[in-house]
Amino acid sequence: MKRLTTLFLMMCSVHFVRSQNYYFPPIDNEQWETVSPSDLGWCTENIDSLYHFLEAENTKAFILLKDGRIALERYFGTFTADSVWYWASAGKTLTAFTTGIAQREGFLTLDDTVQDYLGSGWTSCTAEMEQQITVRHQLTMTTALDDGVADTDCTLPSCLSCLDEAGNRWAYHNAPYTLLESVLSNATGLSLNAYVNSRISQKTGINGVYVSLGYNKVFFSKARSMARFGLLVLNGGTWDTTQVLGDSLYFESMVNTSNPFNLSYGYLWWLNGKESFMLPYSRLVFPGMMFAQAPADVIAALGKNGQIINISASRGLVFIRMGLPPSENGVITPLFSNEIWKRLNDILCEPTGFSDMIQNKLFSLAQNPVSDVLSIQMNDNENLLMTISDLTGNTLYVGNKTEIDVSAFANGLYFISVQTQKGSQILKFVISD
């Protein structure tokens, strides 16, 4: 399995281009240089369209950096630059970054077993299978622990059972990730907050805190701290001339394909420009890039309800979005970034993506949730192929009807994919009585 993973790493590796001309704001005050979109030659008449879209989609904060300077910054409603918001699973990327520092400082290695730091019995797997689970598996979502349990956040041993040998399966699973905090704390002798503060915050001005919410550890910060983290990663883990990560090999592994199952996943980072991708809580493998309207080199931190960091080194761009769930029915959080890129392309006055996979709007749903009949409104019926799948990846329907009887389906969340000669589109829908 390790040989197969290494082969995929070699095949899917993309060098993360960095510039020597990035601007970095001071770490001890709130000053931050701006750059005028008009001076950049952008189509400024399209900026309001982006802001209207973001506001309609329940956004609280949006920042766009160009080579480190703020090109766009907007807060909505009562939210301000001093407001604090959660990163949700976008904070996983900060934990991945921190793990790289811990390895560079000699506190752990990615091939250490999780048992080394949590002791035996942290799962309900057999002793042999538990011993196979490493820190690398936690970073890549390949622990093969059962993600079909009632509570995927639960970190109790009774909630953690093995479906397969570690490394043989990719599944988005919060609990094994959450336990990285205990791994890091036991390895370094510091709490995760203390370690991040001493190794990252003091060098970059990224101020925030991990908060315990149930089983989860969720990072909270102001919007500009989120943008600072994007800038830090844009520059390969170096803040101006200060080494923060200090391990280029780890960085390149972090932002490139980490496993042969989900090509669009690194070390807790989502990756664009790959041949296929998987989505959280689904066993489906979708063809094409995750963000069809974005540059191929985009890497993303993605969190529940649309907490987003997108980074394109080739364009020197970073954008962050904080807010409540997007209001449009069926928008999947990882694909919400694509909707933003569609509007950014209009502002940049040039396309940055390579296909029309999502924004084609091939179809919409007449209503969502549905109970008996799923009604599909098509913009193009040519060579139509529809597929309905559940969260485990089971295909429940294949055909070309625009009225599909779903009365026999259990209540829950489903994916519908439509393919035509013009592209493909994915939406989610809910069945409820």
What features would you highlight for this structure?
12 helices, single chain, 433 residues, 26% helix, Immunoglobulin-like, 23% strand, globular, Beta-lactamase
- The value of Rg in angstroms is 21 Å
Arrangement of strands in the largest sheet: 2-1-13-12-11-8
Q: Mean of the pLDDT scores?
A: 89
Question: What would you call the structural class?
Answer: alpha+beta
Task: Work out the strand percent.
Answer: 15-25%
* Strand segment count: 20
Q: In CATH terms, what is the fold-level topology of the largest domain?
A: Beta-lactamase
Shape: globular
User: Under the CATH scheme, which architecture of the largest domain would be assigned?
Assistant: 3-Layer(aba) Sandwich
CATH superfamily of the largest domain: DD-peptidase/beta-lactamase superfamily
Main sheet? 6 strands, antiparallel
The percent of residues in helical segments reads: 25-40%
The first-level CATH class name of the largest domain: Alpha Beta
Number of helices: 12
Enumerate the spans where pLDDT stays under 50 for 5 or more consecutive residues: 1-7, 354-360
Q: Separation of termini?
A: 44 Å
Oligomeric state of this protein: single chain
Overall tally of domains:
2
